[in-house]
Write a structure and sequence with these properties.
Spore Coat Polysaccharide Biosynthesis Protein SpsA, Chain A; eight-stranded mixed β-sheet; 39% helix; 16% strand; globular; Nucleotide-diphossugar_trans; Glycosyltransf_2; Glyco_trans_2-like; Glycosyltransferase 2-like domain-containing protein
Length: 305
């Protein structure tokens, strides 16, 4: 390992109103661990750069200014490229880290003997991932999840980068977040599935690590909008993964008590997977006919027809 254990990465675009609080939360970490703060300013036009400049005398902070605006996840990947820490913790520029977040992750990394191909996160206020990881996927806190069932955790939604700690070099080696065409496509879902299929280990700890006060949800603009976004994410995902591996993923999902209908909808855009998904969905409807009242089920059945 190099001397910097953790990079806190702040990818930002037009967050002049909130980024000062974000930076302060990163500066005021209660830890003796060596860490840096990397801000990647995505050619903001609202004075974000002026707020960042107020912290120019802090030797923990490194700033990268993109010459032009790039995609959301492209900017996240620039954080991976320019960070120098062995591990990278994202903190979006409208979020706030708990003051012991670096220390919490550092202790967990030491406990796991500083693993490669490893991703760990904790609780957040708003958009907490525990329901998907614990309730839907059936895993437990402080359980290292790896192997063929590891992707199940991410079939139900994306793991927000903010407040999540990644083994930086491993993540960068696998290309970082999968690029998408739509700027809001949930690459935080499909990329985690892809990494899980390539042997990454995942763990959720039962500690609060960040505050997401200005939370927005993927469905804020309506179901149809989100389905278009998720279609785009999975279109690019399927360009990275062989058809046989996608089929195996669908088969494994059939054993889940809570069937991942958004995943099925997006994968069913590929004709070769429709029959397999149709069989799973129709069997599930026989067991749980109330699902027919859900708008998503109607749209999925229409796609599978």
């Amino acid at each position: 390992m190099n001397n910097t254990l953790i990079t806190i990465a702040i990818p930002t675009y037009n967050n002049a109103q909130t980024i000062a609080s974000t930076i302060e939360s990163c500066i005021n970490q209660k830890t003796d661990i060596d860490y840096e703060i990397l801000i990647v300013n995505n050619a903001s036009k609202d004075g974000t750069d002026e707020v960042i400049a107020q912290y120019s005398d802090n030797d923990k902070i490194k700033v990268i200014n993109n010459p032009e605006t790039v995609g959301l996840y492209d900017n996240h990947n620039l954080c991976l490229e320019h960070g120098s820490g062995d591990y990278l913790v994202y903190c979006h520029s409208d979020d706030i880290l708990e003051d012991n977040t670096v220390e919490t992750f550092a202790k967990k990394l030491a406990e796991r003997n500083y693993p490669k191909k490893y991703i760990v996160w904790g609780h957040s206020m708003f958009r907490d991932f525990s329901q998907k990881f614990i309730k839907y996927a059936g895993f437990s806190y402080n359980q290292v999840v790896v192997g063929e069932y590891a992707p199940m955790a991410f079939l139900y939604g994306g793991l927000t980068p903010s407040g999540t700690c990644f083994s930086r070099e491993s993540f960068f080696k696998y290309g970082g977040y999968i690029p998408t065409t739509h700027p809001q496509a949930p690459s935080d879902m499909t990329t985690m599935i892809y990494l899980a299929m390539n042997g990454f280990k995942f763990e959720m700890i039962n500690d609060m690590v960040f505050m997401r006060e200005h939370a927005s949800t993927a469905l804020a603009n309506g179901l149809d909008t989100y389905l278009g976004e998720i279609d785009d994410a999975y279109k690019h995902f399927m360009e990275h993964v062989e058809k046989e591996k996608v089929s195996k993923l669908i088969k494994l999902s059939s054993g889940q008590k809570n069937k991942p209908y958004y995943f099925y909808y997006a994968i069913a855009q590929a004709k070769e997977h429709k029959k397999q998904i149709r069989t799973i969905v129709l069997k599930n409807i026989v067991k749980e006919p109330w699902i027919l009242t859900q708008p998503l089920t109607y749209k999925l059945l229409k796609r599978l027809a």
